[in-house]
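User: Here's a chain of 128 residues. Predict its fold as tokens.
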Amino acid sequence: MRNLSCLALIVLLLPGCLLSRRTQNDPLPAENVAQLVPGRTSAKEAVAVLGAPTEVVQLGKRTAYRYDHAETKDAGLVLILINLFNSDTRADRVWVFFDENDVLTHVAASLHAKDASWAMPWQSVRAK
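Assistant: Prediction complete.
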């Protein structure tokens, strides 16, 4: 009887759901990106607004800074014999380009990290 009780307890404790969230780098709020004005914003001011870039690329005498932020949401169902998981990663990426005088010339942004969603493995994360 004791073995049966232990088995019943194990069977009840093993199945479950899993939700997790992971982020990479600091978020890039759209209102911060909107503060960058081509022809007026300096590289120093851009760093003050967005923080340290993920990557700095030299383009001859010009420079480009890349900023990244990613968010991943995982959901899963843990059963005794079958484990089902779904993962959705969305990212923000901002490129800022400066001329030879460190004055902003262009800004390109793709901001989708906030759209990451939890979904069980049989659900589509794209439909949300």
